[in-house]
What we know:
Layout: E1 2-12, E2 22-28, H1 51-54, E3 56-57, H2 60-71, E4 77-81, H3 89-101, E5 105-110, H4 118-121, E6 126-129, H5 140-143, H6 146-153, E7 158-164, H7 167-179, E8 187-191, H8 196-213, E9 216-217, H9 221-226
Parallel strand pairs: 2-4, 4-5, 5-6, 6-7, 7-8, 8-9
Antiparallel strand pairs: 1-2, 1-3
Helix pairs in contact: 2-3
Amino acid sequence: MPSGDPEIFATVQGEGASIGVPSVFVRLGHCNLRCTWCDTAYTWDWSRYDREREIAELDVDAIFARALTEAGPSTRNMVITGGEPLVQADEVAELARRAHAAGFRVEVETNGTVQPGPELAAVVDQWNVSPKLAGSGNEERLRVRPQALTWFARQDNAWFKLVVANEEDLAEATALVARFEVPPARVILMPEGTSASTIAERSRWLADRCRAAGYRLGTRLHLFVWGSERGR
């Protein structure tokens, strides 16, 4: 089970519906998409990063033990992220089962291209689904998988987080929400950006759009607190 060695860490959730919740993050390596603006490309882009340095092959026992240590006695929210965790769905299900048994609430962050099986679905408390738009640089046939997105849209514990940089992205996000009949109350629009100033600037115009559509306005809390520092 590939997990970036520095990427099991305790922090607060920086994005999505549970923003601000103290959490232990488990960031897994590998992804089935190639987003041009990805800020965790060190989990999959071996043309730019050293795979031997970034990825450690750890079994579920080792990952869970380290997550317990990082979480300490008071943090009981686990966020399994990536990369794309669902390319390792069986191992993620086992990790989530152990987390539940230890009293954790479990979130899984996914790009929405892989439909989880029943064993995994049974042990996930919250899905943070982030379908990729055309601006990500991925072909539509790879980034929009109707069967998987339809499944997520029907789950009451699935939140759709769409990254928006401009009006074109907003129009595409709105069309995707309508196509898969995602309830507006479970849609979060998050401004694209890797700096606090960019996030703040794009939030100004996006706030009114969210209010008009009944969506939530998201942000990237960790950028305002720690910048682009890894392990935060």
